[in-house]
Amino acid sequence: MMDKEEYYTSHPPVKHLPSQFAADRVKLICCDIDGTTLTNEHTLHPRTLHAFTLLRAAHPHIPILFATGRPRSATLPLRTALKELGHAGGIYLNGALIASETPPETQDYTTVHETPLRPADAAWYLSFALKTGRACIVYSLDNIYTPKDASIFHICTDADEPYPILTPPDELLRRVQTGEMAVHKVGFLSVPEEIETVRTALFEFEAKMKDEGVTIGPRPADTTVVMQTGPERLEIMHVHATKQHALEIVAREDVGCKMEEVMAFGDGEND
Fold it and tell me: Which end of the chain, N or C, is less surrounded by CB atoms within 10 Å?
């Protein structure tokens, strides 16, 4: 299979939109960021920028929305590069946050909709990390926190995310349990060949704790979803914090269109 860079090299920039593109039937376009809008190296290829520019020139009335697992603070380079597109806003943190668009040079935004994890649910997964020693990060709006530093955290800064803030485990757990810190998602990081072992360990953890006589309660399976969002990432979100659910809200409440009138692009399990 041809990889993305080979495709970019062998295919010249598009000069016109496909003839089957029915602009009268498309009221909103939504694009994933990493692996879709950006290359595997997290850069915006000139061919992609050219396609967006062509689309905007031909159909200025169609809003273009970006949906990502990143916090909003990690999208500044892309928002700056595409500032002429006239965004409809942004879906961040895998759908846990919908924010209104502001000029890219500012970090201010208005929260349109927010779906954080329940405090008890976030605390369960953080407790799993503390008891098993897994590399764990906790997302709260634009910031990321961790109870323990790990060398794999470079993948955060590689994706323009802030480096996790090291926080004493007891303090972090307290802030999460009490709801003082709103947790939008919890991430577990590992090398790609071992990421599935994290998922397996999550599902076995409750039984193991019972065998050891430790009371932690059942895993909140009904109110959370476990999803791989990248080769090195397994993330936990509220069951309703998905890009699709957030996109439905934007389509209905902001744009006033049906989901059948939305064109969406993505490449991951969280898309």
Answer: N
> What local confidence, expressed as pLDDT, does residue 58 receive?
87
Residue at token pair 């496909």: 18
Q: Taking the CA of residue 168 as centre, how many other CA atoms within 13 Å lie in the half-sphere pointing to its CB?
A: 3
Closest to 71 in 3D by CA, of 45, 48, 98 = 98
Distance, CA of 254 to CA of 248 (rounded, Å): 10
* Calpha distance 7→4 (Å, rounded): 5
pTM of the model: 0.85
User: Is residue 248 within 8 Å of 242, Cβ to Cβ?
Assistant: no
Give Cα separations from 208 to 127, 146, 165, 190 (angstroms): 13, 24, 30, 21
- Three-state secondary structure readout of 90-134: EEEHHHCEEECCCCCCCCCCCEEEECCCCHHHHHHHHHHHHHHCC
Q: Is the pLDDT of residue 212 over 70?
A: no
Report residue 154 as tokens: 């470079």
**H helix and E strand count, the chain:** 8, 12
